[in-house]
Amino acid sequence: MNRSSWLRKMSSLPLCLVVFLTAIVPQAALAQPVSLKQSQKARSPKVRLKLPKLPPGDPPGGRRRGGGGRDTCPEAGVPLTALVPVTPRSRNGKVIEDVWGLTASEKPNFWFYSPYPQGDRFKTYFVLRQKNKHGDTIARLPIQLPSRPGLLKVTLPEKMSALQIDRSYYWALSIDCREAGKGVPLTVEGMVHRVNLPDTVKQQVAAEVSPIGQAQTYAEQGIWFEALDLLSDCEQNDPNLKANWEALLRSVDLDPTQFGL
Question: Which pTM value belongs to this model?
Answer without folding.
Answer: 0.81
